[in-house]
Amino acid sequence: MVKDDFLLLAKEFTEESEWSLTYDENHASYTYDFYSVDRDCEMIGVYNRDNEVVGGAICALDYLSHKEPFGYLVKFYVRKEYRNGISGTKLIKLCNAWFDKHNVVATFVCPVAKVGAQDVAVKLLTKLGYNQIWSGVRYGKV
User: Fold this and answer.
1) Is residue 29 within 8 Å of 9, Cβ to Cβ?
2) Which of 61, 65, 78, 134 is most buried by its number of CB atoms within 10 A?
3) In the predicted model, what is the mean pLDDT of residues 81-99?
């Protein structure tokens, strides 16, 4: 995924989130630069017929202290007008293929962005092989 597409998705993601967030292009740019050069990460984009980005994801491997990696679907986002179609499914399938290529022990994801209906993200992930185990959130000072 090219940087401009990532920045567009990051901006829309931030603006749509129900968290009290303010978009910061410098932070978004740094995030892209960080993940795009890491050999254990992949930034995956999904595009429409006109080659406009419709969604994206950041995938990462974690070796910590072992040879076999865990996979982390760090972030994923599908633009509002492309939800309830095949774009989300295509994006997660591309991520799963990347994780499979790297022989991960397991892949972890926690859809807590407060973007759209959370249950839609959970249903999509469940349909594509993810089991809901547990997730929690601790809120910072407000």
Assistant:
1) no
2) 78
3) 92
